[in-house]
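> call design_seq(struct)
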């Protein structure tokens, strides 16, 4: 397993539910966590909520400083944000957890993405970064809940660079209960992002925070 212990983690859109949840778990595991936002003040407030040494700053500063950068913004703002951070993200592992979803009376459904998936969109924009797709199905509610000691699920990790996917698998595993599982190349990210719509349906029907487990590995 790759040693990720010394790596700092930056989170773009880290003021939202998902970003804060991941930030909390990585900070508890001893990582230096940098919360990014369009507003420095919101980032500092979120970092204060998380504690454990987390700090907050503008998305660009966080992108430039962190060793690994997680993108946790809504799909609507995804492409424009990454286009504005190309230089800061050069040479870095960029972890995309964005699920392009729409919602109507029937619930959640997957949106078409011109590039194939949000992760492929990130890779098309960030040609000098190593884009990895992961953390799509992790419930922000469970990540934030202090009563949840172990988050019981596998995190599927997709990408075209073996060292980068190994690193992100190891990063997933610093969250107690989580196993990082390689899930294929970036071109197969669409199904993983879209599957979130099914998981949301499961959650609504069974009033749960469902996760996935892959058997026989
Ligand atoms: N919530 C979950 O359980 C969950 C689970 C898995 C994956 N995800 C994915 O993670 C991403 C974030 O989810 P979330 O629930 O945390 O979303 P969110 O709370 O709606 O947004 C996260 C943050 O993104 C920033 N943001 C909003 N609109 C933006 C824009 N147009 N451009 C740049 N930044 C913008 C905001 O931060 P500032 O205003 O401070 O900049 C906001 O606090 C989504 O793509 C979602 O599909 C969520």
């Amino acid at each position: 397993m790759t040693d990720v212990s010394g790596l700092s983690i930056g989170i773009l859109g880290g003021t939202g539910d998902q970003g804060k949840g991941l930030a909390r778990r990585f900070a508890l595991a001893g990582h230096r966590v940098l919360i990014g936002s369009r507003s420095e003040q919101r980032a500092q407030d979120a970092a204060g909520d998380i504690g454990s040494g987390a700090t907050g700053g503008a998305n660009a500063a966080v992108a430039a400083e962190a060793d690994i950068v997680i993108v946790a913004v809504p799909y609507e703002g995804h492409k424009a944000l990454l286009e504005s951070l190309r230089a800061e993200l050069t040479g870095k592992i960029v972890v995309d957890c964005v699920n392009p979803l729409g919602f109507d009376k029937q619930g959640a459904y997957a949106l078409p993405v011109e590039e194939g998936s949000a992760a492929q969109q990130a890779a098309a924009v960030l040609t000098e970064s190593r884009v990895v797709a992961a953390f799509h199905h992790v419930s922000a509610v469970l990540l934030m809940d202090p009563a949840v000691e172990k988050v019981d699920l596998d995190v599927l990790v997709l990408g075209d660079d073996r060292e980068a996917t190994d690193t992100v698998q190891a990063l997933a595993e610093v969250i107690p209960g989580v196993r990082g599982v390689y899930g294929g190349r970036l071109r197969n990210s669409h199904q993983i992002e879209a599957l979130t719509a099914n998981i949301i349906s499961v959650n609504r029907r069974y009033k749960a925070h469902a996760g996935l487990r892959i058997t026989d590995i």
